[in-house]
Prior knowledge:
Helix content is 3%, strand content 43%.
Amino acid sequence: MRFDKTRSGHLAATSALWFVAIAAISFASGCSPKVLPISTKLPILGELTDSLAIVPASKTLAVGNGVAFSATGGQAPYAYSVVSSGGGSIHPATGVYTAPEVPGTYTIRVTDSEFITKDATVTVNPEVSITPATITMTAKSGYTYPFAPAGGVPPYTYDVVSGPGTLDSNGIYAAPDTNGSSQLRVRDSLGNSALASVSNLTIRTNGVVNAMVSDATSLYIGGSFSAVNPYSTPRLMALDLTTGNPNLGFDLQAGFNGKVSAVAVSGGSIYAVGSFTTYRGQPAERVAKLDLATGNLDTSFTQATGASGDVIALAISGSSLYFGGYFETYRGLPAQNLAKVDLTTGNLDTVFTQATGANATVYCLVVSGTSLYFGGLVTSYRGQPAPRLVKVDLTTGDLDTTFTQGLGPNTIVFSLAVSGPSLYVGGSFTTYRAQPALRLAKVDLATGDLDTTFTQAVGPGNVVYSLAASGSSLYVGGIFTTYRGVAAHGLAKVDLATGDLDTTFTQATGANAGVYALTIFDSKLYVGGVFNTYRGQNAERLAKVDLTTGNMDATFTQTTGANGGVYAFCISGSLVYVGGVFTTYRGTPALYVAKQELATGALDTTFTRTTGFNAPVKALLLSGSSLYVGGSFASYRGQAAENLAKLDVITGDLDTGFTQAPGMDDQVSALAASGSSLYVGGDFNSYRGQPARHLAKLDLATGNLDTTFTQATGPGNSVYSLVVSGSSLYLGGMFSTYRGANAQRLAKVDLTTGNLDTTFTQATGMNSIVFSVTASDSSLYVGGWFSTYRGQPAPYLAKVDLTTGNLDTTFTQVTGLDAGPLVLLVSGSSLYLGGAFSTYRGDPALFLAKMDLTTGNLDTAFTQATGTSGLVNTLNLSGSALHVGGGFSAYREQTAYHLVTVDPVSGDDLD
């Protein structure tokens, strides 16, 4: 048996006393001393008790956790204590320990009744946490995102506490197929837990929906969108530099409500400027500071009274932020188009920033040494001549009159870049200091003198919007298609010294539209703009290319990038931050027409292709196995289809027997079918080269024109809506005549002959435009921008008799809508309407309403003050789902881009 060192001396003394006592007894009894055999040796007193120990000897806890310590051996009773200062608390008798709120390593001690001690070690970790705390994901996107735990006591386990989605054993959350908020939990081995929240949005389309139609299984939608079920990235996003995947930990939520023109990173913050006034619903007037990791708004820096007008450019130097644009004040103080503020507080530097700053818009800024260079429309600075290119002192803002002279670029400067002793200037100018300089120039940083070797009379063929320098090369972006007479679409690489074009990098099939932003990192060039192809490959407004070859990185660059223009880049660590006017990123391509499953909302990729229509769709009609499409397009899947097309409902293939060139010579806005005939309304004046003024009747199978019905003198102006009832066709629009007779924006004609029904159609019809007509039983419902009908009040909505055209004054009242409905839909005893209105009969009805067909009374359960956030253009009812499409981004204050499915009774969001 082993002894504690503290006990061994005590036991030796005790043994000696025992020996003396035994010897004394032996002599007293007359016995001679005898040595006992080892086997019969009397026990030493100390060996009767085990040595003192504390259990557990070491323990790992999280802050605030508890554990019970116990003692064995030694001599009871025991006393427990915390040796380390601030190391928590322990009950002296029971040994129940509570860890402190401060992480660290602490010592716990037990003492027995003989003052023998034993120590244990406690390691206290931070409380368990999960990162990110919030993210926003897109339902049906198939995207996953890893959540990272920390603190507590590993190992960790994960689960979804509430809401949709799944979380695997490694903390990877997968987006669900339905929207809604989810709460995720991580737990450590001791049961400590932390929560994170996920907002799952159903982002159906990335652009305006103008028309919808459904059959038993599918919903067909048409509009100006180019993607379905994309990610939500409202005007700013953080992407992985390698994969291009969005970093959802930088959680934008509702994001900015307007364009982001420029971004810059400093320390742990990202600065954004533009035309926005809010971020995540919080005030942020055109200048904002966000946390680089979380996307949280810095409300100390960012205030409601920021810049009074749009901010276009920014630059950072030291502890200061410089920005330019077309504003007059900042936080209520004078700041004419150029300002300097503190990076931490956002406070204005009133020494640099003055009331008489730049006299016109500043489009670009760059810092070099102790100077700030800026360009734009400006022609004077602090009252001194400064034509479009200006150099000022970073501290005082004083003008450098050596560099800045009375003659600069002759028109706008849009971009600047510094390399070595030179400043490169891009814009729309053609001269600099009266010397030829076609849209691109190189000048000396100190004197502003023009480098005539680099700068020539034949430069980019159109405006230069962006510049980036690297090594011995300058990369140039804009809307040009040539450089010095050589093909160079939107993007070019030139020599910094000579300006000569690098034809390996620069090719004829570059960006197919404008390049507005460039940034360089790790031998790669990131390109942003409004293009959607690069070298003939799909590249939606964002691309990554090799600096040497110009080859596109197809991992980063995908067909489904941003759905709007990209205007700004900055890079931090492994992320690239992108700003612009986009609201979505990486959706499924679906150009202007798409087919979705009614049950799941999944995109039918057999029907829906990348190369759909080349311009917006305005009207859809299902008939048999065919989908008829009207709009302002000229082609479909690369085939001629002028404003009217017929597609197979399964494959989406174009019916080239029906769809021919020439088709309609202008936009088609309305479609209706009856029997074997298709009725078409719009802005056109001819069809297949034959007269067809705003209204035509075609054969559903062949597309042949019915010249009995269709005449050169049809409606006198545009037709926006058609509905068939019985043997008649009702039409509404902008017209005031039909075949020369009065027909004020509403007419009834015979389906066969097209003859006008003059009983129904009268000279005093609607006093302004009709956008929508629909029929039910013996009544016609009419919506538009009119205020009277036949001289009687009828604000924006009217109900009239199908036969006589007489106004129903029970339904139609003086206090109707406050703006026009664009679409009407009848179902059962109810009328659904969508448009631009916000009230009906004085009650809130934001862009979407439901009312009784007979009385016109509002259904206030369905119709609420928080309807859609913008125009409703189209409605479709299929089964127990009402599909609502338009130009909105929210429904009942929840994100819902352009298309939302709601309950037709309650109006609840079914997504």
